[in-house]
Design goal:
Blueprint (H helix, E strand, L loop, with lengths): L11 E4 L2 E11 L8 E8 L5 E6 L6 E2 L3 E10 L3 E5 L6 E5 H4 L11 E7 L2 E5 L4 E9 L11 E6 L4 E5 L7 E5 L4 E7 L5
Antiparallel strand pairs: 1-2, 1-5, 2-3, 3-4, 6-7, 6-9, 7-8, 9-10, 11-12, 11-14, 12-13, 14-15
């Protein structure tokens, strides 16, 4: 069991029977009058709720290993999202709360890692960024200007702000957690 001072982003820990993913962990060294402390930002894997937690640096935490399997997204019925193991064809239901507002980034037949703990799904491991085609945006005012943004609608229905040089048909990279434009990865008419 690692000490709290060893917490790193991406680790999965168990606190009071609940699994949490470490999003951020910052160690603040103490002074002569105050002991050091570790400030951790944690995401509950079952509900997706973010919590802040303080630990004493020497406090022990239970690190949990998760089994990761690439599965194929099939469909959802409003309460559950169904994934299929492409090797065994077993279907696994995942509660909607576990997916949360990232549902917009799931496409039928998409392969995505699902994490399991003791045989039960506990998280869907979304990539940090996705590449999506721009289906609607206004004409560029200037070809090279990148500090002025305009709205664009992507193929999944998401509206984001993109630089002026982005045109319909371009493929853009979007950070799924901030919903922000990252880069243009393909031009219209290409590939």
């Amino acid at each position: 069991m690692p000490a709290a001072s060893e917490l790193r982003p991406g680790m999965t820990i168990a606190l009071e029977g609940t699994l949490f993913r470490v999003i951020e962990a910052v160690y603040h060294s103490g002074t002569a009058q105050q002991k050091g402390v570790v400030h951790a930002k944690l995401r509950n894997l079952r509900t997706g709720v973010m919590v802040d937690r303080r630990f004493r640096p020497e406090e022990r935490v239970e690190e949990v290993s998760l089994e990761r399997r690439v599965m194929e997204y099939l469909y959802n019925d409003g309460e559950m999202f169904y994934f299929m193991d492409p090797e065994t064809y077993d279907q696994v239901p995942v509660p909607a709360a576990m997916i949360g507002d990232l549902e917009i980034f799931l496409q039928p037949n998409q392969r995505i890692p699902v994490e399991f703990h003791e045989g039960q799904p506990v998280a869907v491991a979304f990539p940090e960024t996705v590449d999506l085609r721009v289906v609607h945006t206004s004409q560029p005012l200037r070809e090279r200007e990148s500090h002025v943004y305009k709205p664009a609608i992507l193929e999944n229905g998401l509206e984001v702000l993109v630089p002026q040089f982005i045109a319909e048909g371009d493929i853009v990279r979007i950070n799924i957690y901030t919903r922000a434009y990252v880069d243009r990865v393909g031009k219209r008419g290409a590939g």
